[in-house]
Amino acid sequence: MPITPTKKIWMDGELVNWEDATVHVLTHSLHYGSGAFEGIRAYPTPKGVAIFRLREHIERLFRSCKILMIDVPFNVDDVVEACREVVRANELNDGCYIRPLVYLGYGEMGLNPLPCSVNVSVAAWPWGTYLGDDGVNNGVNTKVSSWQRHDPNAVPTAAKSTGAYVNSSLAKVEALKGGYDEAILLAPDGKISECTGENLFIVHKGMIFSPMHSDQGSLEGITGETIETIARDLGIEVRYEALIRSDLYLADEAFLTGTAAEVVPIRSVDDRLVGDGTPGPITKQVQSIYFSAVRGGEDRYQHWLDYV
Ligand SMILES: Cc1ncc(COP(=O)(O)O)c(C=O)c1O
């Protein structure tokens, strides 16, 4: 989906005009993928626009930078405030997607990143459903990718690093060219890891299973943790366990979670319908509470909302 330009982008402590938020062609991260980023959503609520689980996202950004040995010249509070400022300055009262980025700048070249300047930017723009309204309502068709998730000893999968996403892009293109909506990546051990930008969950005999916190290199997703809380509060058991691809074929229900994608039912895996191919009752229940919570409709989850 094309980006809708807004007015201002936060760059290293100040708001600059959208069209002036540019970098030099010799920016280190452009060459070596040496950056870290976040994806965050804000939603309209009855009390005004609110950013969903903002601090958790910025804390993960700083954890990514720690893994990459990038010393961010701002603290968590500064970047949290920068996100609020960008939403306010662009009057994104109907909600938006927010993209904080830490990157190594212009000035040094070569594979030693340590002497490089560290730059931080935060942009925001209106963004509709990532996998389409039909996907959210009726489910998406997925395919196990021929591309494998990184071995964490090759590229650390716990860091949301810019360079790591070459892997997701390869898998995404392969899936789209094959007529599918999304790819499922396997870990080097052959177990299920996650999708290109989402965590994966299945429902089996009334329980929810996910490899999210197992050793298969999936990102610790904030949407996934949100669904875990919602499900447990409904009395549904959630287990983090390694899964194999036939677990997906035989699941009663399956869904994926991510900030951009939100909560999306999986209609099929490798041309096999999940259940009867329509979103299952547990998927629909947690999805509907999620959409209500992000828009301020659930009293018990108000603490997830950061009003700008
Ligand atoms: C590879 C990958 N896995 C999972 C997720 C889901 O994470 P979250 O729910 O925190 O957006 C994302 C999105 O950030 C991602 O890029």
Overview features:
308 residues; alpha+beta; D-amino Acid Aminotransferase, Chain A, domain 1; D-amino Acid Aminotransferase, Chain A, domain 2; 2 domains; 9-stranded mixed beta sheet; 8-stranded antiparallel beta sheet; 8 helices; 27% helix; 27% strand; globular; binds pyridoxal-5'-phosphate
List the helices and strands and how they pair.
Elements: E1 8-11, E2 14-17, H1 28-32, E3 36-37, E4 40-43, E5 50-52, H2 54-68, H3 76-89, E6 96-104, E7 118-125, H4 133-138, E8 140-148, H5 165-177, E9 182-186, E10 192-195, E11 199-204, E12 207-210, H6 222-233, E13 238-240, H7 245-249, E14 253-258, E15 262-269, E16 272-273, H8 281-294, E17 305-307
Parallel strand pairs: 8-9, 8-15, 12-13
Antiparallel strand pairs: 1-2, 1-7, 3-6, 4-5, 4-6, 5-17, 6-7, 9-10, 11-12, 11-14, 14-15, 15-16
The protein binds pyridoxal-5'-phosphate (PLP).
Task: Give a verbal description of the structure.
With 308 residues, this protein is an alpha+beta fold. The chain has two domains: 8-125, Aminotransferase class 4, branched-chain amino acid transferase, N-terminal domain (D-amino Acid Aminotransferase, Chain A, domain 1); 133-294, Alpha-Beta Barrel (D-amino Acid Aminotransferase, Chain A, domain 2), CATH 3.20.10. The chain has helices at 28-32, 54-68, 76-89, 133-138, 165-177, 222-233, 245-249, 281-294; strands at 8-11, 14-17, 36-37, 40-43, 50-52, 96-104, 118-125, 140-148, 182-186, 192-195, 199-204, 207-210, 238-240, 253-258, 262-269, 272-273, 305-307. Strands 8, 9, 10, 11, 12, 13, 14, 15 and 16 form a nine-stranded mixed beta sheet that branches. Strands 1, 2, 3, 4, 5, 6, 7 and 17 form an eight-stranded antiparallel beta sheet that branches. Helix 6 packs across helix 8. Residues 39, 168, 194, 197-199, 218-219, 221-224, 257-259 line the site of pyridoxal-5'-phosphate (PLP). Pyridoxal-5'-phosphate is lined by residues 39, 168, 194, 197-199, 218-219, 221-224, 257-259.
